[in-house]
Write a structure and sequence with these properties.
about 15% helix, Immunoglobulin-like, alpha+beta, 3-stranded antiparallel sheet
């Protein structure tokens, strides 16, 4: 049976380990790109991208996507290319008609993104057969 002093010591050790773990986890940061795609319809009723906003951010690594999305068609999707070399994870959401669609794009952990790096972001609208009906590309310089 443990004495009161031993229980206090064990409790203090557990609290210190939990605090240290929280601090370490919070320091793990990951670059992501927030993409907002505005979708409308043309005169034939075909979905078109009417606007696209791309914002670089750094977030807690636990909140960053770890793989490409697996959303079925029809969908609004996007991906990013870092310095014309590394392609990031695809982000996708189901297409439900005209409106705003928000996606978060990330890169595999081995991709190092630095201030001033060039990022190309391509957004697409894909119909139920998998055909790309519209696309838009934005180029940004990484600054957070």
């Amino acid at each position: 049976m443990k004495t009161g002093g031993q229980l206090v010591a064990i409790s203090l050790v557990l609290v210190m380990v939990a605090l240290a773990g929280t601090c370490c986890i919070d320091r793990l940061r990951a670059p992501v790109i927030q993409v907002k795609v505005e979708v409308g319809l043309d005169e034939k009723g075909v979905a078109t991208i009417t606007g696209m906003n791309v914002t670089p951010e750094v977030v807690n690594a636990l909140r960053a996507p770890k793989a490409s999305s697996t959303v079925p068609f029809p969908c609004v999707s996007a991906f990013a290319i870092h310095n014309f070399r590394e392609i990031g994870y695809w982000g996708a959401v189901a297409y439900t008609g005209p409106g705003s669609y928000e996606l978060t794009l990330a890169f595999p952990p081995q991709v190092e993104i630095n201030e001033g790096d060039m990022i190309l972001v391509e957004a697409r609208i894909t119909d139920e057969s998998g055909k790309v009906v519209d696309r838009e590309i934005r180029r940004i310089e990484w600054k957070v």
